[in-house]
Amino acid sequence: MSGHIHESPCAAFSGKTLVLNPGPLQSGRCALARLEWGADGAWRAEAELLSLG
Fold it and tell me: Mind giving me the DSSP string for 1-53?
C-alpha cells in the first residue's frame, strides 16, 4: 500500500517498514535513507529528513 500527501513530514517505522514522507521538494524538503546489510544477515534502515534552502 502507498499514498501521497505533502503534509506531516515524517520518517518512522511501521513494524519493520520504513515510512518516509519528506514533504514537497519545491519547498526544499527531502529525505536521506540509508540501507545496510548487516553482519548478522539482516537489513538495517535509517532515515533523516532534510530541509534545503
Answer: -----SSS-EEEEETTEEEEE---GGGTEEEEEEEEE-TTS-EEEEEEEEE--
